[in-house]
Design brief:
By secondary structure, the protein is an alpha/beta fold. About 45% of the residues lie in helices and about 10% in strands. It folds into 2 domains: about 180 residues, no CATH class; about 170 residues, 4-Layer Sandwich (Nitrilase/N-carbamoyl-D-aminoacid amidohydrolase). It starts with a helix and ends in a 14-residue tail after the last strand.
Length: about 350
């Protein structure tokens, strides 16, 4: 009895070990297989089996969230564990044979992973089955089937009783994905200077001086020398924080960026945050031309829940949660994910948005 209770927990820990920073991708498949065999034996306790499995999966693999937002971490782990518990329960209720139960587990847990891409809070696709396989051969499915396809294929390989057939089918798709390419070259090469200033990790914005980050990047930029082959200089997200101080165009940081653009004679593509009305700010990537004009702007559409905005702020505050860590909410953008600079159209995904392929497709 005790052994059966611990088996889904061990299975979940194995799946967690396939996630960053560990990246032991084979253990993800082994963990899913162990969970599947346990779920077949514990049909009468299907919900708790899926719940324990998912909790052991998400608690360690998403633990880094605690340092950013403890309420978000607890809520996310609870919701995701319940979702996979429900998937396990539904799979058990809909089937009568072992073979059909295995198939139902693949389908139901795949649907739970799909749901996580859009619910709750617009989607929180962290520690997904697909992320755990990015270090292995199943990554080759990405061009064909994306995150959903990798998750389904992993579950299929781990849970089906027809392993040889599964290996052949998935192997063929991986081979196809590695050889098929739906992109094409525009026949041009860009020469870009990408500045990453670095700095202390694990800090909160409310406890630090945003100018420190700007200064580090500006110091690195000043080491660049004019180069006729250079097309643009790129700074990362949120390096220029004007939040609580007005607009980027009115800031000293804007003037300093223009000076560097003139010195190097190339446009700068920089990440900014600035005021956007009462109790709101916006997170954007803008193009600053040599003459100081802002020729392009993309405002982040996919905001980080509990990081850039606080869902259920009033409720959490009444429960004593540290909602002051996110004192203002980011205003979501509405535009498509690209910027035009240096006679080129480039896709833009600002941090969190990289989890959502549809933002740049």
């Amino acid at each position: 009895m005790i052994r059966r209770i611990f088996r889904p927990i061990i299975a979940g820990l194995l799946v967690a070990s396939s996630m960053p920073p560990w990246g032991w991708w084979p253990l993800g498949i082994i963990g899913l297989g162990l969970y599947g065999s346990t779920a077949l034996q514990r049909r009468d306790k299907s919900f708790s089996t899926g719940l324990y499995f998912a909790a052991a999966w998400f608690l360690p693999s998403m633990a880094w969230m605690w340092f950013l937002t403890s309420p978000g971490y607890i809520i996310a782990v609870l919701i995701f564990s319940v979702m996979h518990g429900c998937a396990s329960y539904v799979a058990a209720q809909l089937t009568t044979t072992t073979a059909s139960h295995r198939t139902a587990l693949v389908i139901c847990h795949s649907l739970a992973e799909v749901l996580r891409l859009s619910f709750p809070f617009g989607g929180v696709p962290l520690a997904t089955i697909a992320i755990g396989q990015t270090g292995g051969p199943l990554l080759g499915l990405a061009p064909l089937m994306g995150v959903i396809g990798i998750s389904v294929a992993t579950l299929y390989l781990a849970l089906t009783h027809r392993r040889f057939r599964a290996i052949c089918v998935v192997g063929f798709l991986v081979l196809l994905g590695n050889t098929w390419d739906n992109t094409h070259s525009i026949g041009r090469t860009l020469n870009l200077s990408i500045v990453q200033g670095g700095g202390e990790q694990g800090t909160h914005a409310i406890d630090t001086n945003p100018r420190d980050v700007f200064d580090v990047h500006m110091t690195a930029t000043k080491t660049l020398q004019p180069n006729s082959q250079r097309d643009a200089v790129i700074w990362p997200e949120n390096v220029i924080s004007i939040t609580n101080h007005g607009l980027f165009l009115d800031s000293p940081e804007y003037s300093e960026i223009v000076q560097q653009a003139k010195r190097l004679n190339v446009p700068f593509v920089v990440g900014i945050t600035e005021d956007a009305g009462q109790n709101q700010f916006t997170n954007a990537q803008v193009v600053v031309e040599v003459d100081g004009t802002i020729s392009g702007r993309y405002d982040k559409v996919r905001r980080v829940p509990f990081g850039e905005y606080m869902p259920m702020r009033s409720l959490l505050k009444s429960l004593g949660a540290p909602t002051d860590l996110v004192p203002r909410d980011a205003r979501a953008g509405t535009s498509r994910g690209w910027l035009d600079f240096a006679d080129t159209r480039a896709s833009v995904a600002i941090s969190w948005e990289i989890f959502f392929g549809g933002r740049v497709n």
